[in-house]
Amino acid sequence: MHTEVKRILIVDDSPKDVELAIAALSEKNLANEVVVAEDGEEALDYLYKRGKFVNENGSPAVILLDIKMPKMNGIEVLKHIRSDPKFKFIPVIMVTSSLEERDLVESYKLGANSYVVKPVDIIQFIDAIKVLGQYWAIINQPPPERM
Description:
Elements: E1 8-11, H1 15-27, E2 34-37, H2 40-48, E3 62-65, H3 74-83, E4 92-96, H4 101-109, E5 114-117, H5 122-139
Helix pairs in contact: 1-5, 2-3
């Protein structure tokens, strides 16, 4: 049985954090391709295959979603994702600098699978992304998409 290697969608407006996340994932030799959306609207364009993502196939294995972004924040993106039956089983990991309790509570209320506060230390950040990527993209067994 051939299993398709799904993409990892990183939604973050910080080029530095995106670069570090991609470096961390590649250090783990994950075969998953990484797609980057720079804001919430672009993330939804990717999921709904609009705009520059019109030719994309399938859904991502996991979404690493920042909260504080321009145009549409991560909480709003999560609401959209969890309100659409096509996306309800995609693991969404909030990876954010927000220590605000309301963001944490709201993320879980809306169906986030995990909430990770970005460490200030670069080494800790890279280690956290390695673990997240390996677990959610490789080890975790999601339900079939046809559910």
